[in-house]
Structures are given as structure tokens and as C-alpha cells.
Amino acid sequence: MEGLLFNVNNGYIEGIVRGYRNGLLTGANYTNMTQCETIDDLKLQLGPAYGDFLASLPPNPSTSTLAAKTTDKLVAEFRYVRANAVGSLAKFMDYLTYGYMIDNVALLITGTLHERDTRELLDRCHPLGWFETMPVLCVATNIEELYNSVLIETPLAPYFKGSLSHQDLDELNIEIVRNTLYKNYLEDFYQFVNSHPDMAGTPTAEVMSEILEFEADRRAINITLNSFGTELSKADRKKLYPNFGLLYPEGTLMLSRADDFEGVRLAVEGVGDYKSFFEAAGLGGGVGGPGNMAGGSGSDGKTLEDMFYQKEMEISKGAFTRQFTFAIVYAWVKLREQEIRNITWIAECIAQNQKERIGNYISVF
Amino acid sequence: MSGAADREAVFPTRQSLGLMKAKLKGAETGHSLLKRKSEALTKRFREITRRIDEAKRKMGRVMQIASLSLAEVTYAVGGNIGFQIQESARSARFRLRTKQENVSGVLLPAFESYLTEGNNDFAMTGLGKGGQQVQRCRETYARAVEALVELASLQTAFVILDEVIKVVNRRVNAIEHVIIPRTENTIKYINSELDELDREEFYRLKKVSVYPWKLRHAAHTAQVANKKQRDNAAMDAEMKAKREAKAALELENGAPEEVADATAGPTDLLAAEEDEDVIF
Amino acid sequence: MTSQADYKDRQFLAVIGDEDSVTGLLLAGIGHVTAPPDSQKNFLVVDGKTDTATIEEAFERFTTERKDIGIVLINQHIADRIRHRVDTYTAAFPAVLEIPSKDHPYDPEKDSVLRRVRRLFGE
Q1: From the CA of B244, how many Å to the nearest CA of chain C?
Q2: Can you tell me which residues the record assigns to a coiled coil (chain B) (predicted)?
Q3: Is the N or the C terminus of chain B less surrounded, counting Cβ atoms within 10 Å?
């Protein structure tokens, strides 16, 4: 049924995005890239995919400028798609940017709290999370003004309302603010894809639910693992878990009670994927504490984080097997981000002469 | 006379000769001690410079590993955390302590790093994503900074030792090339002056000892008594002045002694005049 | 010679560097901001827009004004920008250490201390 009218409004976008997806670097490309001796060689390898964007780089550019340029391409393409999107797809893409917006707003809050010139911070904001009224936020000189402008000027208002007051911005650690916002955002996004008349019951809702549930679980697990040994209380921690996802509600309840790595492992045992991740990670790092690290020099052992990224990429790749869905836009952005991370990683390894770990990138094509 | 060479401004007397000899001895002892100190320091210095050279090269590698772990954080967090880190820095967890090491009397400071307990400015960083990498990166960097601290100790020791060795070498050279030759010159000068005086005295006394043969005995005795009286008066005056102004030691010392010599001379020779005549 | 009082209070490190170096070193826990009235930081982030005068001023502050800093870390490529200052700095405290940055690998030829080492051995 959804296929009947999908192409009327969104056919062009879908075509474009699928085209972009085909432009993603493949395993063979990555293999070539890892053989490079210098950043210039790498630049040459990236030529076909990123040609115009890398042209202005000086010889042997730094890895951060390389990353900035590759991000520019993503942003340019995203803006193009966004400009051509209409109706609920446009709304969907706006939702996609909210995540980046949260990061930007958190940045501005930090800047305001420390009485920095917030105008400088605009350069540091993620371009995907840019919104027109963002410069207005920079006018704010104290946290209360900022809080009010955020409520008035940004689409993030609903995420602040009800869970954060302006005093909270002052007192709570910025990471807690960020994660609270992100939790609200994920829940809202989940709600949106499952209740909007254009998306409910379509492949969009189906695929997006899977992606968002995974994202929610990942955050819950990460927050738990990272909060060990910090002043974050269990009750506060529980407030940061999104209220949906494969782990919700039993898993998250157990997570909220977990005291160590073992507790987290028990909590996620109900979900096959996570269980296997933890088993793999547990072997690498040993039990106890945040033992899921591969260790400073571990080149073969994958970290939990790596496996989560791998899983995210698998899901994103899977999204392209479906037709008539907005989820491919989301999946494309995520795949593209991973690609940028991979390029940066490889460039970094080349620059730092640490070839033994150059294979730690994630490629799904 | 050796006055043309570089020498100290002293009166050529036996006392200053004694002083100079003591001074020469002191200078020689000091020279050998300083020389030994300089050698010990130089040995240490060379060792330190070699270690600096090694450590500096090693540092390049250590810092590369650390940067890579930061890249890992960027990879996992998916963005730049620099700004946030800069803003959340509050109180140093990684601090220094300085201790001292004694190398041949030179106090060389050494840095020692320690971590203060309980203040963790970045515990929450990467809470939602990448926190483990952040923690790992912190450890890697902490290790890197430890290496840097060690290098800084070496470098400080290098700078201080460099300075001290320069000073010590300057002293050694000063003693070797200026003080010792000058003291030797002075001694030579005093010796030659004293010899000269001896010869003069001898000649004078010879004249004096010939005299009584030509004069009657009484006249001679009167003259001697007269001379004695005059000399005694002069000596008394000098001794008094000496007691009053001890500051001008050398000058004061010289004068009475000469007077004493002069007084002693005739009396002695009066007894020995026959002998001398026999000789000449 | 340095007296005891000259260095017993020196318990911090200071850093002048690019964003990545500073971030990393701050992660290690060297960052310190003094009590609010003047809120002095012991680190300076240098990017393309930072002018040389600012770097010099920070170098001056860390090396001469502040008495609580034992080691000043400075990225080599930044030290190059104020090379005359770094080369003429000979005091033992605080120790100035040139460190490599991510984008600029270490070049032993440029290091002021290492050059002194070389000179002493007549290489």
C-alpha cells in the first residue's frame, strides 16, 4: 500500500540517496587506503569519491582538516537532499538533525557557563546540527537567558521542558544534561516514526524502530559502564535510560542496579546480540571494572564500542534492502559518518606511524 | 728582580714569604680538589646528556602513541571533545613534587609526579559514547606525561650542571693559570729581594766590622750604645703603632722586623766580628 | 644556584600547544585553574588564528610570573614561532620541554636543549 504513493513525493530523494550509498567506499577501497605511506597517497586514493572537496587541501594535510573536508561533503549532500525533501520526509530529516543540535546546544551551554565568547563556538558546532536561530543563542550572557532562548528559539524545547530547569543547567554536569536531552530526543523520535500517519505501519517505522531501539540500548549500556566510579547515582543513572528498546523494561531495570561489568552482562543477557558482544569483549578484557577495553595495545581484540558500531553499520546496511522507506536517509547518514571516522582513523594511523592498528576500521560493503 | 712579571703587591719580607708559601699550598690543594669535582660533574653531565638524547627520541614515539589514543577517542565519541575538556578542567590531578640529589656538592633537583586522589574532572566525559576510550586515553596520556616529567628532570639537571661545571672550570682555570703563577712569581720576587738584602747587609756589616780596627775602643762602644738607643726608641714607636693599627698588617709587620734585624745585626756581629775578619 | 624556596612550590605543569595536544594532556590531568578572582589557566590552545604575541605572553607568564609551575610543555612547531624566546631561555626552573604534536613529528635538530647537547659534544 505504501508503495503506491511513495514515489510521488519521495521517489527522487530515494534515488539520490541510493546513489550516494553506492558512492560509499568499499572494502577494496579501504584495503588500498591502508597501503598508503603518506597522507598525500591517501588523498589520492580518496580522489574518486571526494575529489572536489579534497582539492583545496594543502599537500600533506593534517588529519583534522581531512576529516573536516570529508564532513563537508556529507553536509553538502545532506543539505541537497533536505532541500528536495517535502512533507513528512522533510520532518523526518529535521528529526535526524536534532541529535547534532543537542551536541551543539550542549557546547553553547558549556561556553556560556564558562563565560566564553560564544560566537567563537559557532565554528565548532556540527554543521548538521546548525539551525537558523543558533546565533541568537550566542547573545545570551547568562545561563537563564540561554535557557529561555533555547526554549523559544530551538526545536529542542520539548526535550528541555519538564526534565530540565535553568538551575539544572548550572548545577548538573553537562554530560548529564546532554544525555537527558538525548534520551528525550530518542523517545520523541521513536514516538514520531511510530505514530505519524505517513510512517506508522510502513517499513519506515519498522526499520527506524530497530535502529532507534538499538541506539537506545547502546546508550543505556554505555552510560551504565561509564558511570562506574563516578558520582552519578543509580537513581540518576536510571533517569538517563530511554524508555524503549530491546532491553526495556527488565533489562534497563537490571542495568540500573548493576554495580560492575558482570552486572551489566547479566542485564543484557536477554538479548542475543548483546550477549555475544559481551562474551567477546569479556574474553578480551577480563571481568571486573570497565574491563571491556581491548587494552592499550590490543590490536586484534575488538572493544564493545567497536562491536556496537559494527552492529549499527549492519543495521544501516540492512535498511537499504527495504524499499519505500525514509530510513535509508538515516542509514546513509550513519554509514557516511562511519566512513569519515574510518578515513580519519586510517589517516591518523598513517600520520602517527602506527600501522599495526590500521585495520581497526569498520567496513560493511 | 722579578718585579716585571705579574706578582702581588707585598713587601719582600720573611713573613710575607711564609704567607705566600701557605697561599701557594692552599691554591694547589684547592686546584686538585676542584679539578676532581669538575671531573665528577662532567662524568655525570655526560651521562645525563646521553640520556636526554635517548629520552628525547623516545618521547617522539610515546607522544605518537598518545595521539593515536586521542584519535581513538575522537573515533568513538564521533566528534571533537577538545572544547569540553578544556572547559571542564578545574584542578590538576597530575602534580609534581621536587626532590634533590647531591652530586659532588651540587644539588640537582628531580621532578617526581604523583596523582592526587579524588578529583576527576572528566569522569563524565563520553558518558553516552566513548567513555571507555576516554578513560584509556587518560591513562595513555598520564604515562606519556610521566615520561615527559622524567625528561624534564634530566633537562633541568642538564641546565644546572652545565652552569655549575662552567663555574667550576672557570675556578680551576683561574687557579691554574692566574693564582698559582702569580703566587710563584711573588715568592720568587720575595726570595730575590731577601737575597739582595742579605748581600747588602753582609756588605755593610763587613764595613762595620772593619771600622773598630781603625777607631779606639771607647769611641766604638759609645757609638754602638747610641745606635742601640736610637734603634730601641724606633722599635718601641713601631710596636706601639702596630698595636694601634693592626689593619695595615703587612706594612706594619715589615717595618719593625727590619728594625729588629738592624738591631740584632750589630750586636750579633759584635760578638762575631773576629770570626768574620778571619774569613775575609 | 637555585635555592630551596625557588622550586618547592612548583607542583604544576603548564602547556602551550595545539588543540589535540592540550586536550590529551588535560585528559592526563594536568589542567588547573586557579581560584576564581583571576582564574588563571595553566594551558593555552594555539590555533592558526592565535598571534605570536599571545604565545609569547603566555610563555612569559608560565616561565617567569607564575611560581607554581615546574615544567612548561610547548609544541615544537609553536616553539618555532617564538624560537628566539625559547632559545634564550636558560633558567633551570621551570624546565621548558619541547614536545611533538600530532601533525608535526618531532625534529631533534630544532630542540634548543638538544642543540646545546650537540654543541657541547662538538657534533
Answers
A1: 42
A2: none
A3: C
